[in-house]
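> forwarded from #structure-qc
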């Protein structure tokens, strides 16, 4: 039987969590020691970890739990970890969620929410095992790439391959997915891929641009309206939740949704219930939610512009798309896809690779459409692209740090990882990978 490991310094917490999980048929292993926890993960088939963030008396910083989490990640990068603590630090929570933690739950916890999260993760784990079995029998990349290409995802970079692999793993479950990344990076395409690879692929895939919904029409747009509910409503209107029932609802630009709209959305996500505008009849809906944003929702939460409870409801799994400028291997395959059969001069290729692409894939696609109209024949040269001189010059200043640069930065910043990561414009996890690659102790 698959085992769940609980790590907490309080015996009463271990007993309470064990009781809740064992009643629902889970095999539970517990310990109060981080060292023993690491040993158990090494020795047993642990499918899920629920860990506290503080283990020493009167300690509330969460640094002990953070250290244990990263050690779990080193032992098994795919091991799901739920963080649980009485001392909730949002910034730290988001950092660890981005680093791979699947959830961050405050004490006292909600039993039902915890059980739902555990059930989803265990189901996802079984799905991954099934996919691993299939991949051992087949070429691992070809089927994934074929489906992605059918959706319109063109790529060669390993970073995009990892994102797509994870998207296909997530697709088999019904958990909510938040896709983050800059405008034009392909968030909608990833959402389409998840739906197409899911058991709901034959059901509706309904898209909603939340940023385009006026506050006074949000309720009618999402939940529908009865005749006469507002000026101009001459007949009944079906809302997006009703249209997507049984399928997938893609909430694009969720960060632009008004606060009032967030409150209404949270209710239907929590209960599955809603009423059409102008109606007192409660309806039920069952949809799979995928949302996307280019906004910093954590900062919006701090500023009071986004509901924290809605954020955690939407962000069960996050798929982060990186800018096109940071996945150079994708640029030429995309350009050749947008301009099929055309030849590119060496200078043209170098110009494409040097450009910063602030508009990402959408900018590249539009630029290729322009060339197709203005120069329908012949070899494409660098001067055929309408590049910004400033952005191209800036691109040339970007440099991947080598071992010496990383060691110098660590000395300059007294080993503070956050400052080193900020210097090179990368996430902490990206920096950790480079430190491991070069064998640099930190």
């Amino acid at each position: 039987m698959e085992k769940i490991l609980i790590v907490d310094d309080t015996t009463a917490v271990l007993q309470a969590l064990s009781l809740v999980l064992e009643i629902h048929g889970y095999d539970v292993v517990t310990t109060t020691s981080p060292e023993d926890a690491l040993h158990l993960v090494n020795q047993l088939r642990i499918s899920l970890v629920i860990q506290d963030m503080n283990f020493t008396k009167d300690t509330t910083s969460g640094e002990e739990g953070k250290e244990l989490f990263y050690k779990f990640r080193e032992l098994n990068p795919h091991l799901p970890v739920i963080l649980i603590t009485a001392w909730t630090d949002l910034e730290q929570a988001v950092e660890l969620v981005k680093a791979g933690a699947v959830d961050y739950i405050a004490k006292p916890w909600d039993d039902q929410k915890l059980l739902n999260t555990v059930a989803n993760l265990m189901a996802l784990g079984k799905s991954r095992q099934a996919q691993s079995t299939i991949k051992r029998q087949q070429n691992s990349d070809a089927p994934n790439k074929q489906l992605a290409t059918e959706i319109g995802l063109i790529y060669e970079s390993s970073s995009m391959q990892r994102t797509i692999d994870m998207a296909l793993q997530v697709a088999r479950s019904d958990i909510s997915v938040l896709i983050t990344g800059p405008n034009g990076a392909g968030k909608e395409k990833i959402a389409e891929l998840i739906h197409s690879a899911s058991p709901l692929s034959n059901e509706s895939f309904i898209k909603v641009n939340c940023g385009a919904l006026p506050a006074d029409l949000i309720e009618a747009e999402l939940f529908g309206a009865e005749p006469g509910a507002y000026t101009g409503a001459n007949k009944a209107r079906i809302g997006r939740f009703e249209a997507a029932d049984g399928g997938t609802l893609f909430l694009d630009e969720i960060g632009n949704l008004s606060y009032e709209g967030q409150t209404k959305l949270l209710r239907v996500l929590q209960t599955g219930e809603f009423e059409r505008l102008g109606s007192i009849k409660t309806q039920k809906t069952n949809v799979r939610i995928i949302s996307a944003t280019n906004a910093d929702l954590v900062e919006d939460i701090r500023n009071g512009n986004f509901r924290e409870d809605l954020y955690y409801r939407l962000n069960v799994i996050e798929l982060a798309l990186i800018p096109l400028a940071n996945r150079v291997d994708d640029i030429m395959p995309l350009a050749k896809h947008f301009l099929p059969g055309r030849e590119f001069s060496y200078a043209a290729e170098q110009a494409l690779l040097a450009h910063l692409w602030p508009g990402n894939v959408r900018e590249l696609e539009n630029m290729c459409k322009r060339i197709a109209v203005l120069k329908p024949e012949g070899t494409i040269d660098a001067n055929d692209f309408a590049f910004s001189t400033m952005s191209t010059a800036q691109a040339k200043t970007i440099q991947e740090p080598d071992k010496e640069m990383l060691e110098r930065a660590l000395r300059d910043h007294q080993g503070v990882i956050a400052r080193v990561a900020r210097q090179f414009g990368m996430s902490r996890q990206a920096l950790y990978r480079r430190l491991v690659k070069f064998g640099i102790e930190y």
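QC bot note: The mean pLDDT is 85. The chain has four domains: 3-131, 140-320, 324-397, 403-437.
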